[in-house]
Amino acid sequence: MDESDLQFWRSVAIKMTEQVEKAVSPLVGKKEAGEIIKMGADGTPSKLIDLVAEDEVIEVLLRSKRPVILISEEIGTIKINYSADEYIDVESLRNVQTQNSEPPEDFYKSSQEPQIIFVVDPLDGTSNAVKKIPAFGISVAVAEYIPGTNLPSLSDVKMGFVKNFATGDFYESIEGRESSLNGKRIFPSVQDNLNQSSLGAFIYGTKFSQVNNICKIIRRMRILGSVALELSYVGNGAYDAFMDLRGNLRIVDIAAAKLIVEEAGGIVTDQEGKSLSGLLNVNSRTSIIAAGNKNLHQEIMEIMEVI
Questions:
Q1: What does the pLDDT look like over 274-283, one tens digit per residue?
Q2: Residue 120's closest CA among 213, 256, 286, 283?
Q3: CB neighbour class for 183 (10 Å; exposed up to 12, middle 13-18, buried from 19)
């Protein structure tokens, strides 16, 4: 991606965060926002506020007038602006959605080269938004993929954007260019003693024995209900570490924040210590352990006895 293309797609991503924030703002804290409308492509219920957010994402991409692929929890994987005669509006795009979120085998082969892929969680922390708990926002990852190579994965992500709509905090990262919060460069925590650390975690739905030793040692634990935001907190040191060991964490949820942490200088792996390289689709799942530095990450892994 050359510099002009990078700046163009960056401007689209920023416009997307602004439009989604504006659209969902009147629904935050409202009962109707939590009304279940349908099942999303990822197999989970889509609430009204989710669909309002995603419609804005689609609209912004349509207005870009450039071919782009969207991967989003509600609509799945879909092409936008690939033909002047189809998909001319949001309703048309929704009409071609299927519950099978996996694209056909020739989906990428038949597309123009190279491709830009937007991996978006239009509203991360939906339940928080419905209840007006101030931890919800958008996650936007921009990937570049060349057809004929392996299927697009996390390694193809070039830009990441995460915004907390409740606070206005805006995280941004471009591959090879560090990470920022509200325009200022960020750095992860240098705390390398687990017993002095603050850890964000999703521990429900896991065997408690997996994290019991961690819980006994850490100084404090936080569970906010927004993976994209909490993972981003590792990037600027608000959290010393973050983990989700359920094994069903959606790649869509972390595609942007993973880049933010890594470009800031932090470490992100799965619970076995392996690099995350999941495919970019709504069905891809993973576990995650992220830390501000290698020593803390190593200590977490050792205590969990996975290495």
A1: 999 899 999 8
A2: 256
A3: exposed
Q: What is the mean pLDDT of residues 186-202?
A: 92
Of 197 and 213, the structure prediction assigns the larger pLDDT to: 197
Q: Is there a contact between 1 and 9 (Cβ–Cβ < 8 Å)?
A: yes
- The residues of the chain that CATH labels 3.30.540.10 are 3-184
> pLDDT tens, 51-67?
999 999 999 999 999 99
Segments of the chain assigned to CATH 3.40.190.80? 194-303
Domain 3-184 in CATH 3.30.540.10: yes
- How high is the pLDDT of residue 208? 57
> Is the pLDDT assigned to residue 112 strictly greater than 80?
no
What does DSSP assign to residue 116? E
33-56 in b/e burial notation, b at 16+ Cβ within 10 A?
bbeeeeebbbeeebbbbbbbbbbb
What's the first-to-final CA gap in the chain, in angstroms?
37
Measure the CA–CA gap between 285 and 254, rounded to whole angstroms: 10
- 273 close to 266: Cβ distance less than 8 angstroms: no
Q: Does domain 194-303 have CATH number 3.40.190.80?
A: yes
pTM over 0.85: yes
> What does the angle CA 273 – CA 126 – CA 257 come to, to the nearest 5 degrees?
35
Strand segments, DSSP code E, in 32-124 are 36-39, 45-47, 68-72, 76-80, 115-124
